[in-house]
Amino acid sequence: MPPAEQMNKQILVVEDEGLIAADVQRRLQRLGYSVPAIAQSGKEALRCARSMPFDLVLMDIRIKGEMDGIETAAALKAEFETPVVYLTAHSDEATVDRAKLTEPFGYLLKPIGDGNLRSAVQIAIYKSEMEGRISDNWLSATLHSVREGLITTKTKGELTSGSSAGPHGRQSMDAPGLFEESEESRSSTLPAPLLESLSMLKHSMAALEKATAAIAAPRVQTATCSRKPRAAGARKGR
Length: 238
What we know:
Blueprint: H1 4-7, E1 10-14, H2 18-30, E2 34-39, H3 42-51, E3 56-60, H4 69-80, E4 84-88, H5 93-100, E5 106-109, H6 114-145, E6 150-153, E7 159-166, E8 169-171, H7 183-189, H8 192-216
Parallel strand pairs: 1-2, 1-3, 3-4, 4-5
Antiparallel strand pairs: 6-7, 7-8
């Protein structure tokens, strides 16, 4: 009997050949997976994905309609980050090269058997879950590294304000303190895009610190007095 966790996984099958689609659906259900929908075109696949969440999509490359399987997989990835395993009878180099651009989680050649189907599905779902956990961990670490900082910007990205949560409420950001970790240590653990973002944040926060200090500096107030104009014909005081 399949594990309960496996039985909770929902898979969308995108295949325009009815007999093949039904066979794949039966095999997946026999392996313990839920297959609540079968789509026969790219548009139908997107419609299904928008109506319910899927853990995996098994995608035939040659499907009818305006979009083929590769274009549909790219659309699903862009909109939902849904992992895709391709099902196809075509293994020519040109097709494989196009398919690789969508970063699929697997590639199954027809005819499909229970063994290779099980392996491809299990590996794809596991890989997708691991990538999700890694992404969540990076996000958590990044948020922790800025000490719950709050930054606001204008629409063009210009920094307008920033603060950090301290023991006595929000304070101005201590920009150097947020980046105490050495450059060598960060470069060995963080991906390049995140390093670039942290570097930009560091410079922005340093500029913010200077601006905050300038605003907080005492200013010499100059008092001005003005005499109200005397009404015509008014007498001088006694």
